[in-house]
Amino acid sequence: MSSVRRSGRAARILDAPLLLTLPALVGLLLFVGLPFALAVGMSFTNLRLGSPLPLEWVGLEQYTRLLGDETFRRALVNNAYFAAVIVPVQTALALAAALAVDGSFRGRGFARAAFFIPALFPMAMVAVVWELIYAPGAQGPLNAVGQALGVWMPRDFLRDPVLAMPSLMVLSVWQGMGLQMVILLAGLQAIPRDLYESARLDGAGAWSRFVHVTLPQLRNPLVFVVVITALLAFRLFDQVQILTRGGPGDATTTVMYEAVTAAFTRQQVGAASAMSVVFFCVVVLITALGRRAFRQEASTA
């Protein structure tokens, strides 16, 4: 009888993780899985909002058009360019900030808050503020400072084909770095101090301790930060919608911006669904490759 009670208790303990994760799994299915399945289905149709044409099954026609659409290909390149710069730069700056505020010094709380506060603001508000900073001519603060220092003449950052995307990168790094800093700071504080003491006794300098103690111990937080930063970078939309509208030309257009424009401006729901499906597959592929690369690096270290 006691063995039966023990087996029943063990079964309840094993069921506990499933019960705890069940609400999250249901939410994921309802708000991610189901919409994605609907997008896949609509991508095989010619669905248009308000169109008098009957709904028809067009198969892979939407995807064929996307492959031949120069604007969509440019949007993919812009997304890749943005992520390729943002992920390493923002991660490196977040790690540097976390290392800077990890020690004990006067004003440590203020320094941590100063780095983290921008992450509390919504990107839409940040974009509006930076639009004022980037204002063309001498009335823009950035242009005024650059002209006063003799660094550059006043220019229109958001309408320059070369400077528009880097300008979006700067404000994105400024807004997002604080969240990554907090994650990495928590990882730094979880590192046993005995490891640093042992390294010092072995004669390791500051750089050697960073390379052989800090980075290996931060591997999991760094992988998490890189993956999250990459996903957020590929979701680039708010800055483009508010500041550049994909311009000048197609210099800052992204897949998200093109999908939203196709669905709600041109009312081409089928085409927008196809863009969303392609974008989802690209993000999943890049995330999987990134995690695999980090695992291989950790196994060879």
Secondary-structure topology with pairs:
Elements: H1 2-43, H2 61-68, H3 70-100, H4 108-120, H5 123-133, H6 141-149, H7 164-189, H8 193-201, H9 206-217, H10 219-234, H11 238-244, H12 255-264, H13 269-300
Helix pairs in contact: 1-13, 3-7, 3-10, 4-7, 5-11, 7-10, 10-13, 12-13
Question: What would your notes on this structure say?
Answer:
The protein has 301 residues and is mainly α. The chain folds into two domains: 1-43; 62-300, MetI-like (MetI-like fold, Orthogonal Bundle). It contains 13 helices and no strands. The chain has helices at residues 2-43, 61-68, 70-100, 108-120, 123-133, 141-149, 164-189, 193-201, 206-217, 219-234, 238-244, 255-264, 269-300. Helix 1 crosses helix 13, helix 3 (70-100) packs parallel to helix 7 (164-189) and helix 10 packs antiparallel against helix 13. The protein is globular, with a radius of gyration of 24 Å.
Report the principal-axis shape. Answer: globular
CATH superfamily of the largest domain, by name, is MetI-like
Helix content: over 70%
The helix count comes to: 13
| Overall SS class | mainly alpha
Average of pLDDT = 85
Q: What is the fold named in CATH at topology level of the largest domain?
A: MetI-like fold
Q: Measured on Cα atoms, how large is the radius of gyration?
A: 24 Å
CATH class type of the largest domain: Mainly Alpha
Order of helices and strands: HHHHHHHHHHHHH
Number of domains: 2
Q: Characterize the quaternary organization of these chains.
A: single chain
Instruction: Tell me the number of strands.
Output: 0
Largest sheet: none
Distance between the termini: 52 Å
Enumerate the spans where pLDDT stays under 50 for 5 or more consecutive residues: none
Strand content: under 5%
Q: Per CATH, which architecture of the largest domain?
A: Orthogonal Bundle
